[in-house]
Write a structure and sequence with these properties.
- It is built from 8 helices and 11 strands.
- The chain is an alpha+beta fold.
- Strand 3 and strand 4 form a beta hairpin.
- Bound molecules: zinc ion.
- Zinc ion (ZN) binds near residues 18, 19 and 21.
- Zinc ion binds near residues 21 and 40.
C-alpha cells in the first residue's frame, strides 16, 4: 500500500454497512470484517458493547434485540408501572432505574436518553453476576508540599453474566446476557461538589440490589423475633413441595383431569420451590419472562 492509499484509508470516507451512508473518520467505528458503522446507526446499539467485536450480521441481530427492549420499555413497563426506584432521582449524567415488578432495570444516561433513535435498553435482574460501588481518587501535592486526596469519580460497577461464564459455579437461576461481556460502569458523580450526595445514591442503589438478590435474607431484624425472610421462603417451599408431590401422586393414580384451579395451585407451589432454590430470584425471572412475552 502506498502512502497515498494509507491516508485515503484512514481519512477517506467509508460507507456505513447498515444505512449505506458515507461516514467520515470522526463519525464511524470499525466493526469486525473490515466494515464500518456510522454514528447514527451506532446510536441504535447498546453503548455498553464494543462494536469491533461484532460482525455486520451480529450487529443487525443486536439492533433487533435493542428495538425489542425499547418496545418492552414503552409498551409494557411505562403504561403499567406502579412504582419504580431511581437513583439519582434526577440526573443529567448516569443513574439506575429499577423496575421490580418487571424484574428489570435500566441505566439512565443523560447524553443518550434524549436522542430520539436511541432505544431504551433493559437488563434483567437475573443477568447480574455482581455489583459493587467504586470511587476513583488521586493524591495531589500543592506547592507547600501538602498532599490531599482529590475525588475523581464514583458510582457503581455491574458485571453481567457473560456467554462464556460458567453459570454452574454461580448462584442458581442466573442467565447469560446475549451481547455484553464487559463490566458496566455507572458513573454518578465526577466532581467534588456532588460527591457526598451522589455517593449516597450509589449506596441506595447497592442497597436495592442487595434487596433483589436477598443478600440479607438470612438475617433476622434486630428487634424481630420471627423467622428471617430465608426461613419463611424455605418453609413455604417445603410445604409447597409436599403438596405438589401429593397432587402428582393423586393424578398418576386416579388419572384423568386436573381442574384449572388445581393447575394454578400446582404452578404456584412450583414457583415457591423455585424461589427458595434461587434465593428469591426466580420471582424476578418470572416477571421478566412475562414482560418479554408481551412483545413478539
Ligand atoms: Zn449508518
Amino acid at each position: 500500500m502506498g502512502l497515498g492509499d494509507f491516508f485515503k484509508n484512514i481519512f477517506g470516507k467509508k460507507t456505513c454497512a447498515f444505512c449505506g451512508g458515507e461516514c467520515g473518520m470522526l463519525s464511524r467505528t470499525k466493526i469486525k470484517g473490515d466494515e464500518y458503522i456510522c454514528s447514527k446507526c451506532d446510536d441504535m446499539c447498546s453503548f455498553h458493547i464494543q462494536k469491533y467485536r461484532f460482525t455486520k450480521d451480529e450487529l443487525r441481530g443486536h439492533m433487533e434485540y435493542m428495538k425489542r427492549s425499547d418496545r418492552i420499555y414503552k409498551e409494557v413497563i411505562l403504561p403499567n408501572i406502579q412504582k419504580h426506584e431511581r437513583y439519582p432521582s434526577a440526573t443529567n449524567r448516569q443513574g439506575i432505574e429499577f423496575f421490580d415488578d418487571f424484574g428489570m432495570f435500566r441505566i439512565i444516561d443523560g447524553s443518550k436518553d434524549n436522542k430520539e433513535q436511541y432505544p431504551k435498553e433493559l437488563f434483567r435482574y437475573d443477568q447480574v453476576a455482581s455489583y459493587e460501588p467504586y470511587i476513583e481518587e488521586s493524591e495531589e501535592t500543592d506547592e507547600n508540599g501538602k498532599t490531599r486526596t482529590v475525588f475523581g469519580e464514583g458510582g457503581i460497577r455491574i458485571t453481567l453474566v457473560g456467554g462464556r461464564d460458567d453459570t454452574t459455579t454461580m448462584r442458581k437461576g442466573l442467565r447469560a446476557h446475549p451481547y455484553i461481556t464487559e463490566e458496566i460502569t455507572v458513573c454518578f458523580a465526577t466532581n467534588d461538589r456532588e460527591k457526598e450526595d451522589y455517593l449516597k445514591y450509589a449506596e441506595n442503589a447497592i442497597h436495592h440490589f442487595n434487596y433483589i438478590f436477598g443478600v440479607n435474607d438470612d438475617q433476622k431484624g434486630l428487634f424481630s423475633f420471627g423467622m428471617s425472610t430465608k426461613e419463611k421462603r424455605d418453609l413455604k417451599a417445603a410445604v409447597a413441595f409436599t403438596k405438589t408431590a401429593f397432587d402428582a401422586v393423586k393424578v398418576a393414580k386416579d388419572g384423568g383431569e386436573i381442574s384449572e384451579e388445581k393447575k394454578a395451585e400446582i404452578m404456584e407451589n412450583m414457583n415457591a420451590i423455585d424461589d427458595a432454590q434461587t434465593g428469591g430470584l426466580a420471582k424476578y425471572t418470572r416477571a421478566a419472562d412475562a414482560a418479554e412475552a408481551k412483545i413478539n
